[in-house]
């Protein structure tokens, strides 16, 4: 009976896990500094604010699913004068569609291709939480100048395993988000910022990812942000300064 109950629990969790991964908010992103673009045959939604800096940043938010919740991260680039383009996720903030790992990754590549066609200079990718998987996915397949990762993970299915007591990385039909698999294809320098008090994605996951990147001979700068939790990382003192210093060194090369 216990085995049967566990198998039933596993089947239910496989069926409902997308709702857990993508609890997107409905708040629309309304910032007059940004204009909305719908691009590519996939009808990908992008919010873009143009700056004068030669470097543009393609931003991928976390699973809040609405850019309205990520103003600190967007402001970090706007205030530095960079063009920042942010992917708006299907199923959040009034954007039609249903999110999935495969679909979001395809949208992320389409967003990069559109931005690259519009912007003559180098492009960096910046991801937060869930979005770090998209930033890494794009950086493994497109030419990027830098990779910025806030509260990244090695594999999202490992976090699911910890939370569900199920072998999520081995279950069929589970969206696994294996960032580690893309590490060998990366070449750009990486900045990782991770809160020491992050309980949603503990800092050990970010450290393990950084270790894998170092082992792949990537240039990795890791900052453990003392006392920062998952949701207040971007609001901590020094967050923007670390980004600016890192990108300044990259653009000098």
From TrEMBL:
Q: Does the keyword Iron apply?
A: no
Task: Give residue ranges for domain Dienelactone hydrolase.
Answer: 103-233
Task: Write out the entry's keywords from A to Z.
Answer: Hydrolase
Q: Name one GO molecular function term.
A: hydrolase activity
* Superkingdom: Bacteria
* Any Pfam family the entry gives: DLH
What's the protein here called? Alpha/beta hydrolase
């Amino acid at each position: 009976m216990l085995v049967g109950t566990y198998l039933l629990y596993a089947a239910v969790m496989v069926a409902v896990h997308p709702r857990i991964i993508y609890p997107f908010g409905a708040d629309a992103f309304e910032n007059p500094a940004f204009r909305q673009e719908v691009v590519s045959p996939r009808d990908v939604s992008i919010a873009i604010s143009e700056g004068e800096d030669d470097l543009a940043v393609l931003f991928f938010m976390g699973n809040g699913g609405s850019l309205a919740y990520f103003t600190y991260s967007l402001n970090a680039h706007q205030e530095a004068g960079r063009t920042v383009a942010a992917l708006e996720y299907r199923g959040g903030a009034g954007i039609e569609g249903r999110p999935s790992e495969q679909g979001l990754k395809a949208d992320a590549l389409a967003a990069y291709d559109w931005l690259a066609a519009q912007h003559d200079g180098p492009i960096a990718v910046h991801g937060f939480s869930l979005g770090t998987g998209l930033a890494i996915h794009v950086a493994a397949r497109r030419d990027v100048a830098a990779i910025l990762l806030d509260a990244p993970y090695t594999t999202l299915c490992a976090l699911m395993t910890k939370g569900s007591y199920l072998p999520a990385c081995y279950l069929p039909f589970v969206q696994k988000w294996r960032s580690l698999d893309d590490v060998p294809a990366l070449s750009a320098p990486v900045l990782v910022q991770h809160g020491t008090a992050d309980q949603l994605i503990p800092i050990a996951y970010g450290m393990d990812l950084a270790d894998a990147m170092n082992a792949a001979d990537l240039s990795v700068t890791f900052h453990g942000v003392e006392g920062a939790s998952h949701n207040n990382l971007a609001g901590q003192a020094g967050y923007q300064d670390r980004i600016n210093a890192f990108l300044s060194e990259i653009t000098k090369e």
